[in-house]
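Whether sequence alone determines local backbone shape is best considered at the level of individual chains. When preparing material for the folding task, we compiled for one chain both its residues and its backbone structure tokens. The sequence in question and its structure tokens are set out directly beneath this paragraph.
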Amino acid sequence: MNEPNRSLSQGDPRSGVLLPVLEFLRRHAPFDRMDTEHLVFLAERLKLTFYARGEKITDPDGGPASRLYIIQRGRVRGEMPGAEGEGSGGAWELGPGECFPLGPLLSPRPVRTVHRAAADTFCFELEQEDFRRLLRLSPAFHDFCTRRLASLLDQMHRQVRASAATGPGQDACLDVTLGSCLRREPVTCLATTPIREALQSMERENVGSVAVVDGEALPLGMFTLHDLLSRVALAGRGLDDEVGEVMTPEPLTLPPSAFAFEAALLMADRGVRHVCVAEGGRLKGVISERDLFSLQRVGLVRLSRSIARADTIPALARLVPDMLQLITQMIAQGAQVEQVTQIITLLTDRITRRVIQLCRRELSPPPVPFTWLAFGSEGRKEQTLKVDQDNGIVFEVPEGASPAAVREAILPFARAVNEGLHRVGYPRCAAGIMAGNPACCLSAGEWRERFAGWMAQEAPEALEEASIFFDLRAIDGPRGPADELGAWLLQRAAGDSGFLRRMAALALRERPPLGLVRGSAVAEEAGPPPTVDLKAQGLTPFVDGVRVLALAHGIEEVSTLARIDALARGGHVAPEEAEVWARAFSYVQLLRVRHQRAEIAGGRRPGNRVGLDVLNELDRRILKEAFRQARKLQARVARDFSL
């Protein structure tokens, strides 16, 4: 998109009349990204109209929408006909710079919302014919009107990345394909190449590794300086030996279309520093951890390896600041929030496994195989910088033994792991959802009985504390019992309409506070600025709503975004609807992580509640739009389950 031309000739006869209007428009999205000639086209056709407080501006009974309104001063309340009153949170407010009604003008169709002046209000008005001409003239205006939330989010990401580009961390963003990361031809050799020649190639090319390929350029292995130390020098081998005898075989390989983030996760999960990029099996290049995190003090692979090597609980605890530093760097660089939360979850998984390993070394291991389970946000891979423990155990019962006896044998070990995680920096769950709690350390049969008991509860309130158990994932031990439990749960839930209806009712309990976010009006009101709980009021409606839809349609995925994608792929939700839900959910999650990062930087404990006065106008507009999407999701849930 071209940069907006902001100049207007002093001699232009329109400048004196239009300048105040142009200055107003340029303070608000999307007008701040429009070319001056298009802004002038708009400003010349606007008419300023006054609406007294309480006066209707649009009404569903008024026929097809005939004009665009841009609030110049005051506030406008949007109300669904028949919805709750002003104080219910069912209405939302628009402030200066915001415009409506876009959907009905694009369709065209009548509005579905009553827009009413919430205070004495002035609106600029643009007739529908001129609205359509402006759509054709201005790409920025067209993008905003047709993509709305996505357009605002794009603008926010551009600001974040522009800020990152002038900051200390300027590493490549992980949201790019590996093909675009390749900067040179790979340095290769054959498996029969003498080690000496391979080292000479590495020195000549100034690289720390060489890819070993066959005659068809198929990758066979990697030879690195680490291999030189451990497999050549310390092993007493000669430099005339063949590289194929000392290389690391079966290299990790991804296609050029894979994203850099996928390579980073793969490296961290496998503890390696290189990934081969191959197309049609033939090597195209090599991506190293250094390519992805070249300027970061803390690398993902190095941190992952440090976790695996930590010998004590205090040693693990000392790595937590490095983990926060890594996440802070990623956020500052504008990484997508799902990448951030997946990396937090990956590192938490590795820490949990390491704590279990250390406890096995210190204590008598449990007498039977067991699987360590994660619930809630860890189960969904949606952890942020404020996390506590939500875990449990499913164990096998040997023939002739009782579940109670096996449980008594496992509990001391489970409590030691809970204590270890607490000392590392993962607080105990206040609700007692921990493997060391007898109620969360069960055989597969007992888990099924417990789920069946929850599902039989008549009151939705009874499901509130149990809901996070429906997002379960195996962390350590055999996956089979967890997978079988999840499959049983899906089958049971999909066939229980009463349970699904109660879960749906639960998903409607937390209503996004649409009326609380009022754009710039927040700063104008007396008294302490309002705050929003981003987890309870922003994310929970998405998590709960999408979960019940996923359970109803037998969708195996556990994370919220994966469930949304599966709902769209299965034809249960329109792709456009799913995309907007995903974007809205991701934005609230990103805002939450950014807020927690700022609190940590300020020496405060991270929380979920943010003051609206600390958000800029763009963030407030996006948050309000995200809340509207959450309400639409809830409306969909209410409609599907006849609530």
In short: Residues 575-601 form the longest helix (27 residues). The mean pLDDT is 84. The first strand starts at residue 47 and ends at 51.
